[in-house]
Amino acid sequence: MTASKAIGNQETTVANFLDCVHCGLCLSACPTYLELGTEMDSPRGRIHLMRGLEEGTLSLTPDVARHLDLCLGCRACETACPSGVRYGAMIEAARVRVESEHHRSRWERVKRSAIEYVFPRPDVLRALLLPLRVLELLGILRWLRRMSAIVGMLPRLDSWAPPVEVVAAHGGERKRVGLFSGCVAQVMFAQTNRSTAQVLACNGCTVVTPRLQGCCGALYLHAGSRDAARDCARRNIEAFAADLETIVVTAAGCGAAMKEYGALLSDDPAYARKAQVFAARVRDVTELLDEIPLQAPCGIEPVRVAYHDACHLAHGQGVREAPRRLLRRIPGVELVELPESDVCCGSAGSYNLTEPQMARRLGERKARNIQSTRAEIVAAANPGCAIQIRAALARKGIAVEVCHPVELLDRAYATRRKAGVRE
Q: Which of 33, 254, 334, 359 has the fewest C-beta atoms lying within 10 Å of its C-beta?
């Protein structure tokens, strides 16, 4: 048995596991423990399992693999932990091992391979969704959305063209930024990318969306495919020019992964330094907009808005208040606090496809909390969260709009533009 298994420079050693003092403060933060109440489905329980595997006192049985599979990787335990245990690095290293040593059923292998093939490839995803796009154009999809919760969770498939490569700053360039368009995001959430470019342009940013960029690699990391994730990192590092001061991301999971490129490629002589520089430039769009002088948005129709903390934004990146401050700056928005706002909705990358039962339970938990706020809109800064929450609300018949915070800001700027206010 080897003494350690590394992910980038994130080594998982026996000493790392000993950082966990088993205080139990993580239990109330862990979504699977909240739902199941079983120790092995809590962070400290899984750390016990991972330590046993590392020390050779446990074998990778189907039961052990199952408990590790059920982890969402939401990293809420990291926020709760007083000892600074780096659980995210531990579970990612464990998943590399699970995928290399654990024998899955044929159906599981096919499903996981299909997920890894389709979702990081926008052209493939676009082709698979083409029949729904045709139905949308014919007006039939609107009826199907009312009849089917699964179809109802999909956003409007209103843009199949690639994003505009350069959007010029309004009123003079103060900053030049790159926009990471994502995989699922550019196909199913094109409006979010358009809104991001428009809002940044209104605030003096020229927005460049490189065509050669690719998947951020998060989906591969979560699935234990570390080498594929490293290839994604190298491609994106080459795609974004050095003159772009900031790389703006609208998807929380992508941003968390890209901010860790330095660790992921730390042992690559050709890319280690480049990866560190790249990672330092990555900002969530709400984070960036909170840092720069912001043009005052005009008001929108009064609306009650609840904000959902995407796990990899709140726990992975530590960005919590910036989206809330932006929403509060929009006249007409009444921001209400969402109970268990930072408890995972069950999306967790591809988790709602690999673990649909637990994902459904967590989605319904989130929908009940949303219903309790009487909000008309839920703002969520991650496409996976938006899909999952939209599906959970549709199943319960709750008519609440789900959108990205930057889309609400764009609506306010659209009101400003219609009023003829100069930037």
A: 334
Q: What angle do CA 184, 246, 294 make, to 5 degrees?
A: 95
Closest-CA residue to 407 (of 370, 371, 382, 384): 382
State pLDDT tens for residues 150-206. 565 566 665 666 778 999 999 888 999 999 998 888 888 888 999 999 999 999 999
Tens digit of each residue's pLDDT (9 = 90 or more) over 336-379? 999 999 999 999 888 888 899 999 999 999 999 999 999 999 99
Least confident of 230-239, 270-279, 386-395: 386-395
Number of alpha carbons in the 13 Å side-chain half-sphere of residue 328: 8
CA 348 distance to own-chain centroid: 7
pLDDT of residue 297: 83
Which one-letter DSSP state was computed for residue 271? T
Residues 28-75 have pLDDT tens digits of 999 999 999 999 999 999 999 999 998 889 999 999 999 999 999 999
Those residues whose C-beta lies under 8 Å from the C-beta of residue 49, and which sit 6 or more positions away, are 40, 58, 64, 67, 68
Residue 205 three-state SS: strand
Look at the block and give the residue holding tokens 């969306």.
209
- CA torsion 14→18→19→21, rounded to 10°? 160
CA–CA dist 366, 343 (Å, integer):
8
Let me know the angle formed at the C-alpha of 239 by 289 and 283, rounded to the nearest 5 degrees.
20
In this structure, how many other beta carbons lie within 10 angstroms of the beta carbon of residue 298? Answer: 18
In the numeric block, which tokens belong to residue 150? 């699964």
HSE-CB at 380 with a 13 A cutoff on CA atoms is: 30
Instruction: State both tokens at 416.
Output: 């400003």
Q: Which of 252, 259, 219, 294 is nearest to 379 (CA)?
A: 252
The helix (H) or strand (E) run that includes residue 127 is: helix 122-128
Number of neighbouring beta carbons within 10 Å of residue 357: 10
Higher pLDDT, 93 or 274: 274
Predicted pLDDT at 140: 67
**Residues facing residue 176 across a β-bridge:** 206
